[in-house]
Amino acid sequence: MQQDLHVHRCRAMNTEMETILLSQSEQMSRALEQIVNKWFYAVEHRFSRFLPESELSYLNSHSGRLTLVSGAMAEVLALAEAYRIQTQGIFTPFVYDALHAAGYDQSFEKLDREKATTSDEFSFSLASMTLHSAMKAVQLRTGSHLDLGGIAKGWSAEKLAGRLQRKHGVKRGLVNAGGDVQVWGGSSADEPWYIGISSPWNRDEELAIATLREGSVATSSVWGRRWKDSQHKEQHHLIDPRTMKPGNSDVAQCSIVGDSVIACEIWAKVVCILGLKSGEALLRKHCPRLEALIVSDMGDIHLFAHPHHEKERWEINRIDFFHDITM
């Protein structure tokens, strides 16, 4: 029986989704496309802050009240809280009001990037929530609101990849949720997957290729989603919870390679917010197996990797600084 890799693309969560899946027939390919479309549609309509009918919007509108949530929402909130603790609060889902204050108050393709307004009338506090896992309920602190954009894409890619393997028997595949990539089985019996990583300033310029048979890659950049406020000041979507304003570190872009795309997505954002020195220290402390390709705001390229992976896993034209993560 002939088996081929089938490519499918759709749009959800304000970005392009892509799957490359091993399929035994055209009929199977069409069935897998429907599964992928339905999955991303359901994820968007559960976790989007831009859709007034989403579950997240409903939860935010009930801030301060004990609210029953779906199993998927309870799972993502529990993960978000665990990563908030692990990253010492640098990752937090409580940046909704800060994003609105910075002018990111509608989906990015609809945002007037030259005329987004900002407000200095917001006061921010360390928002928190109480999770009741047994009854699948959550209570947000009164006045606080959630944005799950920093975890939902990675979660959706990882969950879909697992479901395609376990439930539908897909032995070889790639799920790319807007740059958050989970792969398994290699691109063939003899070849790994080759994941390109672009320059933060020029998406057509490829900086590196990460080579994986199994695992994940996620990239975060302060140049990915930018706009100007009413004072013509540059803004971006990575909020530093210490200031509740767009971060201002010495990292322009961070790509993380590991086993879990959820972890890779979150830690890529954390490093962008913290900067090289503090980001490296926290990454070494909590995730010594993760590897990172970091582009500084000056354009220097830093590779944090196991020495034997420098040539085996990474194809890079230029490395300015190599950091041995085993030391």
Automatic annotation (TrEMBL):
UniProt cross-references to InterPro entries, sorted A to Z: ApbE (IPR024932), ApbE-like_sf (IPR003374)
Annotated EC: 2.7.1.180
Record key words, sorted: FAD, Flavoprotein, Magnesium, Metal-binding, Transferase
Gene3D superfamilies (alphabetical): ApbE-like domains
Pfam families: ApbE
Reactions catalysed: L-threonyl-[protein] + FAD = FMN-L-threonyl-[protein] + AMP + H(+)
Domain of life: Bacteria
Cofactor: Mg(2+)
Family: Belongs to the ApbE family.
Name of this protein: FAD:protein FMN transferase
